[in-house]
Design goal:
654 residues; single chain; disordered C terminus; Helix Hairpins; alpha/beta; 11% strand; 4-stranded parallel beta sheet; 3 domains
Length: 654
């Protein structure tokens, strides 16, 4: 038994009032709307003199602004709507948008100032609301609208993301903006998106849920498919990694070997041909050269080390001579200056020299054989009375002696400095040679390590498959089987909706016949749910989308399972995208379906002249033109440009 058809749309707008202010009430536009087809025509001017190219084409008169106003009243809070409100608030700070909205058997008077949120009342007297009558916040009205539109929605969660389907998602579907150019069925907003987390996967689920084409069994099957698909993707990536890892490892080893050799990209890694070179043969050659270089550096280091030992002995001897010269010179000065403390110190050093046994630390010979020690021991003794007498009587002698010993002291110090410098140079040379040798040894260590790594790789991956890869492939096959079973269950669940699918096919086919075509609804097609059979070309693709939306509206009239609002707002589906004949036939087909008491509402803005029979009421609800300010939606021309990107063509007033 068929369900009784609805008498009026689930959602429709009866009136759009644009005000300059409410106290006192100053009206800019008061537009009456009705169920069925409502056309807003931006008429091309009779005279094009003084008009821009866009104005001559019917643009810039307010079509898209009107659509944004209706979206605003229905709860759209996107960037385009906000930009429109901000621009109008700057022009009309006390103005706003008033409407009568019908849904769920109720009528709401709604008013949204351009500069604030708005308010509403559940009655049909808009003037009483504007006069300060009792009202509720706009949000409370919007909550009631959202709940009424989704009350019959049985499945509100989108499998995969588990996002809840909300009224703004459906609103973006039924109020497509002009910027989408009707490129694909699920392309609802051009720039700001529909609010769905998964822009590609989610819209088909919204359609099925809203049209009542899904059930709990299908949703559970879909969740299982999603889960298994994620597992499958992960397992495939892991198996691919295991398959690719050995190749990557070998490629890295080979690249490192070639890099160490300084190229040879054209050589094979191995070659059994004794006359043909290979990476490994070149590696052996280069290794031999490096080993020879290391051996030569070792020889150089040994030679310099022997030289260092000789230089170290020379430094010690020079130090002894320098010290002896310094003592002799100091002794002469002390005797000259009659410095008893210094003389005593020198006596102690001389006494120490006399008592030394073993090899001299300056010349590596016995002390008694050391020349400078022998000379020191021959120095005058301060305990000898004759020395004391000489000190007292012959100061001039010691002065002359100090002068005589000074060049010898300086020469001994210079010789010591030269010996130490030579030693330092030799030590620096040893350090340099050792760094060079260690670097070449490291060069030997690197290829040896790579050769061992390559041998280990050949032992581990020389077979067809590693145990780990074999296990992962077995796991992958199991997940694939589970995914296939889940997909079959999902298909079976969807096949249970064959009745609803047939109903939708009947709706689109009836509409398609007006164009000598056949139409069908494809429940399992997530890209193109509606198809015009026998059509071809971009124009028919646009027609397919428009008729698909209208089929949804007609289905909602007599099918209680559908939560579709039976309300459509199409902003200028242009003739350029559809072709003149198809566009005219489309509007005529929609108008014919609205003869009598239509339980749906479609509002269309157009710059293309509608068919002659539709250029008058009740279908034509507003005619705009750019020839005078009176023909503009807001009856004035100003720079409302913030939302041009949404409409794609509107200038001036959008």
């Amino acid at each position: 038994m068929e369900s009784p058809a609805r008498c009026e749309p689930r959602l429709w707008i009866e009136r759009l009032l644009i005000t300059r202010s409410t106290k006192p009430l100053e009206t800019i536009r008061d537009i009456s709307l009705h169920p069925g087809l409502n056309i807003v025509w931006a008429k091309e001017p009779a005279s094009r003199e003084g008009l821009s190219t866009l104005q001559r084409a019917g643009h810039g008169v307010g079509k898209s602004t009107l659509c944004l106003m209706l979206r605003c009243i229905l709860g759209d809070s996107g960037k385009a709507v906000k930009a429109m409100r901000d621009q109008l608030a700057s022009q009309f700070p006390n103005g706003g948008i008033g409407t009568l909205v019908h849904f769920a058997g109720c009528t709401y008077s709604v008013y949204r100032p351009f500069a604030s949120d708005g308010y509403a009342a559940q009655h049909g007297d808009l003037e009483a609301l504007l006069d300060g009558g009792d009202h509720i916040p706009f949000k409370q009205y919007l909550d009631a609208l959202s709940e009424a539109m989704l009350v019959n929605l049985q499945q509100r969660q989108i499998p995969g993301s588990e996002q809840t389907i909300e009224w703004p998602h459906v609103l973006s579907w039924v109020t497509r903006d002009q910027g989408t150019r009707l490129r694909s069925y699920y392309d609802w907003r051009s720039t700001e998106g529909s609010g769905l987390q998964r822009a590609r996967q989610a819209p088909p689920w919204v359609l099925r849920a809203v049209l009542g084409l899904t059930n709990t069994k299908e949703m559970e099957a879909a969740r299982t498919v999603e889960s298994e698909a994620r597992k499958l993707k992960k397992a495939e990536e892991e198996a691919k990694g295991l398959e690719g890892a050995p190749r990557l490892i070998r490629a890295r080893i080979e690249a490192s070997l070639r890099s160490w050799l300084g190229g040879h990209a054209d050589l094979e890694l191995h070659s059994n041909d004794m006359f043909k070179s290979s990476v490994m043969k070149e590696l052996e050659k280069q290794t031999g050269k490096t080993e020879a270089a290391v051996a030569k550096l070792d020889e150089q280091i040994i030679a310099v080390e022997a030289q260092v030992r000789e230089q170290d002995r020379a430094v010690d001897e020079a130090k002894g001579i320098a010290e002896s010269a310094l003592l002799s010179f100091g002794e002469a000065e002390a005797m000259r200056d009659r410095d008893e403390a210094k003389v005593k110190s020198l006596q102690e050093q001389l006494t120490k020299l006399r008592g030394l046994q073993g090899p001299c630390r300056y010349g590596a010979v016995e002390f008694q054989s050391c020349e400078h020690i022998r000379k020191r021991l021959e120095t005058r003794s301060f305990h000898d009375g004759r020395d004391q007498k000489a000190i007292q009587s012959d100061i001039e002698y010691w002065t002359a002696e100090a002068i005589r010993l000074l060049p010898a002291k300086k020469a001994a110090q210079n010789n010591l400095a030269m010996a130490e410098a030579a030693l330092d140079n030799s030590m620096a040379e040893i350090r340099k040679l050792r760094v060079k040798r260690d670097s070449r040894r490291a060069d030997l260590y690197r290829p040896q390590l790579l050769k061992e790594e390559l041998a280990n790789w050949e032992d581990a991956f020389g077979v067809a498959s590693s145990p780990e890869l074999a296990a992962k492939r077995a796991e992958l096959r199991g997940i694939q089987e589970s995914h296939d079973l889940a997909s079959a269950s999902l298909l079976e669940a969807r096949n249970g909706q064959v009745t609803r699918e047939s109903q939708m096919t009947q709706k689109i086919d009836t509409l398609a016949q007006a164009f000598d075509l056949h139409g069908r609804f494809l429940l399992n097609n997530d890209e193109r749910p509606f198809e015009l059979v026998g059509s071809a070309g971009e124009a028919y693709s646009v027609l397919e989308i428009l008729l698909g939306d209208f089929a949804c509206a007609l289905d909602a009239v007599d099918n209680p399972a559908s939560s579709f609002p039976a309300f459509l707002l199409h902003d200028c589906p242009r003739e350029a995208d559809l072709s003149g004949g198809l566009y005219s036939d489309y509007l005529s087909t929609v108008a014919e379906k609205g003869v009598g008491a239509a339980a749906w509402q479609m509002i269309v803005t157009t710059t293309t002249p509608p068919p002659a029979e539709l250029r008058k009421p009740p279908h034509l609800v507003l005619e705009l033109h750019p020839e005078s300010q009176e023909g503009l939606l807001l009856r004035s021309r100003f720079g409302l440009q913030a939302h041009v990107g949404v409409s794609g063509s509107e200038q001036g007033q959008g």
